[in-house]
Each structure stands twice: as C-alpha cells, then as structure tokens.
Amino acid sequence: MHITRIASLLGSIFLFANFSTQAATNTAPTISGTPVTSATANVWYIFAPKASDANGDKLGFTIKNKPSWITFSTATGKIWGTPPSAAVGTYSNIIITVSDGKTTASLPAFSIKVAAKNSGSSSSSSSSSSSAATSAAQLATKLGRAQRLLVGLGSTQPSPIFSQNLHPDIYEQYLVGVGAGSWPTWNSPSGAYVGVVAAAADSAGAVPMYTLYQMASNGDSNLSGLKDANFMSGYWANVRLLFQQLAIYNKPALVNLEPDFWGYVGLQAPNGDPTQLFAYVNNNAECAALPNTAAGVGKCLVAMARKYAPKAYVGFPPANWRGDTMTQATNFMKAVGAGTADFIVMQTSDRDAGCYESVPQPSYCPPWSAQTYWDETNQKLPNFADHLATAKAWHTGINNLPLIWWQTPMGVPSNVTGTPSHYRDNREHYFLTHPAELVAAGGLGVVFSGGESHQTLLTTDGGQFQSLSTQYFANPAPLK
User: Fold this and answer.
1) HEC per residue, the chain
2) What is the rounded radius of gyration, in angstroms, for the C-alpha atoms of the chain?
3) What is the pLDDT of residues 422-466, one digit of tens each?
4) Structural domain spans, the chain
5) Which of 151, 262, 220 is nearest to 366 (CA)?
6) What digits encode the pLDDT tens for the residues 16-29?
7) 360-367 long-range CB contacts below 8 Å, 24 or more apart?
8) 119-474, what's its fold?
9) Does residue 189 have a cis bond before it (omega within 30 degrees)?
10) What architecture is domain 30-115?
11) The two domains 30-115 and 119-474 share their CATH topology (first three levels equal)
C-alpha cells in the first residue's frame, strides 16, 4: 500500500510538472490585417483579420466599440455591414481581439469614417484581330471553378448569401462614375473598393465580377465626355486604378466593360461606325498608339487589362440597337475590340417582366414591349428558344467566345404581374431548370440580380434562388 501510494503521488507530480511545462510554453495567438478606415453610406463594407495560434488552440474573437451597423463574427473576427445614410460619421477606438483561452492579442485600435454617398454614384442599369478563343470549359478552369455552367449573384450584399447558405460561383458589383463621388472615392485609400468587393467574393467562395459603368457619368445617352480631355483623363485613371487593384488581388476576376455604352455608340456614330466617333484615347500613355475613336476606347480597355492584371478576364456586352443584321452587329463589336476579349456579356432584361406589365406602369419601368413575360413552351414570342438562338449567334459571330448572362431578373413565375419587390418573371426559373440549353448556346455562366431597386431581389424572392440553385448544383450542366 505504501509503495502504491508513493507511485500514485509520483504520477501526480509528473502530471502536474507536465501540465506546468505545457502552460509555460504556451504561445500567444497572433492577429494581423489593416482595416479599411473609410466607408460610404449604403455601400458594403467588410474586413477580415488573419489570426493563427502556434499551439493549434481553438480561437475566439471579441470586439470593442462595434458600430451598430456592423455584424461581427466571434469565430473569425470578420466584420461586415452596410452603413445606412443615418450612420454618416466617425466610429473610433474599434478593437478586435483574439484569444486562445489563455492569452490574447489585439489589432491596434482603428476608426471607420462613414461618408455620405454622392448622388451621382448610384448605378443604372491592342488589335482588333481575332484572338484564339478560350472555350467555356477552359475559362472556367482558369477561374478556378468546376467545368459546369457557373451560377452567380450580383448587386446584393453578402449577408443574405451567408444567411441562406448559398454558394455562388460569381459575385458581381458595379463601379460607376468619373471624378467627384466616383467609385475610387468610396473607400480609402483610393480604389480600395475593388478589394472590398474581392474580399466579399472570397468570403462567399466566389469569383469577383466588376461591372465598369463609367461612361454613363454624364447621363446614359450623353457621350459628350468622349470629346472632353479632362473627363477622359479621369476615365483612364480610374480604369488604370481598377486593373492595378486587381493585380494586387492577384486572383481570377471578371470585368464587364461598359454596358449600354456600345449601344449608344452605335446610335450616335456616323453610319454606326465606331471608328468615326471621336474619343480621347491616346492621351492615355498606355494607349498612345491607338486611334482617338470609340473603337480605340474598347481596344484600350482590353490593352490595359492585359498590361496590369493578367488574371483579370474581360468581356463586352454586345448591343444592336440600330437593328442591323447579325453580321453587321458582330462586326461592330469586333471593331471595338470585343473579339480580343475573354467572354461576351449577354442580357435578357434588367427588370422583371411584371414591372413592365403593371398598370399603371411605374416610372422605373418605362414602356418596353406589349409582352415581356417569355413563353416557357417556346411556342409564342417572346420565348427562350428565340433568345438563345440570338445568344448563339453572338457567340459564333464574335470568335466563339463564351457567354456570361448578366443582371438576369430574379422574379418568380406567376399568373399575376405582382407588386414592387415581388414582380413576376420566369427567366431565373427557366435558366436554372434548362441549363444545358445555355451551354449549347455557348454559355459559361449566368449571374442573377435586379437591375433596379423595385425589382425582385434575393431577399424578396421567397427562397426561389436558394431552391433552384440547390437543385441545379445537385445535377449541373457540364461545359463544352
């Protein structure tokens, strides 16, 4: 008994010594990262610190002086949110701390200054020779995605993506404006918004997509800025900043080059010829050898992407507002450089069908056509087979570049037109239940979003996207 008691005592001493040794060698966790210290009202903000622990201990996070509009993750230390207009001001002495249960480490205290968003910053809706086309499957691989039709979301905050446990392939946001109030001013340092969007995409496991919408700064159809050297200098400075920021990101990204602009060029250029419409291009050093024309603008956009951001993939949204033949329309787009891009941006409509059908018709959905709700049986016009035939013609006419549908309405099929935020539409339903038809037309992916605030959104669709995307991902359409 005495020997047993001594052995037990020695064992206890050994355990205590071993525990003491472990406690003495515990290493404090580390935390790093530089928060963006400025934000803009009604614009998404996100910051995610990096933390690690040499002992492999489970980490937890706390925050002091958290702004009320910020959501905080105790598991990751990430903060995110959209400051409302009433949140304009400075939020000081914010401290994020990590703990391994024994010791802690904190980031230096920081502030977030929320500025009012300029009213003018809200969104609206090298050679011209052929490049070797990359197939949809090949481009998906370059983007780090599976070789299946990609499905994305745009113009939405990440919070409903997280709360609905969604897994989009693409996450899209607009970049708008030139000069005061333009997108580079939304965060500090200048251009940090590119990184904000990229971080949001990363957090959702998606590829970031940017819709460059700067040409509408003076009004949708106002192309006077093309002849204004100061405006175009600012324009090119923003483009340079975008691709420089994407170079810093150093991961695959998508850029949609100037929706609507090419349609207005076609309408306003002499004889619809983009090589005959003046625009300042060679005042931009990177494009000094290109002509001062609207065609030169498109070629310069591609050239700058190639120079600064080799992991950025760019696409043009084709427009045939003149009603030309498809051959004429594709030649127009190739003249502005679309054939040297990486993909083609396809559109159906930026509004739900029910919005256009409403009586009386709301101001945000001006008259478009007598019938905007597409026939899913493909017997009457407008219908999906007709649209996909047109999409296929753009695909084959512009060097067989893959197609990404963008800003596709999110309305739910119904027999009634609906109400604001709940207008009917069936394009999301058809696309996600007939994905092989999009692939057959040359499709790489489809991004869903409302092009205007009164349309059906991810937060008002009654779970349609969540349900349909889950069904699609269970049986995806392989790319060609």
Assistant:
1) CHHHHHHHHHHHHHHHHHHHHHHHCCCCCEEECCCCCEEECCCCEEECCEEECCCCCCCEEEEECCCCCCEECCCCCCEEECCCHHHCEEEEEEEEEEECCCCEEECCCEEEEEECCCHHHCCCCCCCCCCCCCCHHHHHHHCCCCCECEEEEECCCHHHHHHCCCCCCEEEEEEECCCCCCHHHCCCCCCCHHHHHHHHHHHCCCEEEEEEECHHHHCCCCCHHHHCHHHHHHHHHHHHHHHHHHHHHCCCEEEEECCCHHHHHHHHCHHHCHHHCECCCCCCHHHCCCCCEHHHHHHHHHHHHHHHCCCEEEEECCCCCCCCCHHHHHHHHHHCCHHHCCEEEECCCCCCHHHHHCCCCCCCCCCCCCCCCCECCCCCCCEHHHHHHHHHHHHHHCCCCCEEEEEECCCECCCCCCCCCCCECCHHHHHHHCHHHHHHCCEEEEEECCCCCCCCCCCCCCCHHHHHHHHHHHCCCECC
2) 26
3) 999 999 999 999 999 999 999 999 999 998 999 999 999 999 999
4) 30-115, 119-474
5) 220
6) 334 333 445 889 99
7) 362/420, 362/454, 364/452, 364/453, 364/454, 365/452, 365/454
8) TIM Barrel (3.20.20)
9) yes
10) Sandwich (2.60)
11) no
Per-residue pLDDT reduced to its tens digit, 285-304: 999 999 999 999 999 999 99
Alpha-carbon distance of 252 to 117, in angstroms, equals 29
Total-model pTM: 0.79
Distance between CA atoms of residues 448 and 451, nearest Å = 9
